[in-house]
């Protein structure tokens, strides 16, 4: 009898749509947070995969999306008004 192959776990957990919405801060700000995260995946804004028919996200993929959308405030620290 052969032993089943053990797949090592990483420190980068998979999240379902609701957990991803919580991580992105969409819960409480949009009416349907799960659908919002699935829409981001459909539009290829956030990398995702399907596991047993459910859309899943990795934390590193969500972090990459957040870092790609960070904007610096205009004029901060120079005495200028923020636009």
Question: Percent range for helical residues?
Answer: 25-40%
Principal-axis shape:
globular
What's the total helix number? 3
Distance between the termini: 68 Å
**Biggest beta-sheet profile:** 3 strands, antiparallel
Query: What is the number of strand segments?
Result: 3
Radius of gyration: 18 Å
Mean pLDDT across every amino acid position: 84
Placed side by side, the strands forming the largest sheet appear as 1-3-2
* Low-confidence segments: none
H and E order: EHHEEH
> Which structural class do the helices and strands define?
alpha+beta
Percentage of residues in strands: 5-15%
Structure report:
- This protein has 83 residues and is of the alpha+beta class.
- It has 3 helices and 3 strands.
- It has a 3-stranded antiparallel beta sheet.
- The model has no long low-confidence stretch (mean pLDDT 84).
Descriptive key words:
83 residues; alpha+beta; 3 helices; 3 strands; 34% helix; 12% strand
Secondary structure blueprint with pairings:
Blueprint: E1 14-15, H1 17-24, H2 33-42, E2 49-51, E3 54-58, H3 59-68
Antiparallel strand pairs: 1-3, 2-3
């Amino acid at each position: 009898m052969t032993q089943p192959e053990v797949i090592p776990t990483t420190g980068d957990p998979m999240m379902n749509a609701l957990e991803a919405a919580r991580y992105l801060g969409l819960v409480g700000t949009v009416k349907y947070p799960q659908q919002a995260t699935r829409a981001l995946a459909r539009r290829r804004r956030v990398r995702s995969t399907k596991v047993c028919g459910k859309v899943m996200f990795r934390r590193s993929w969500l972090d990459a999306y957040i870092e790609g959308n960070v904007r610096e405030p205009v004029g901060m620290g120079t005495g200028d008004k923020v636009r």
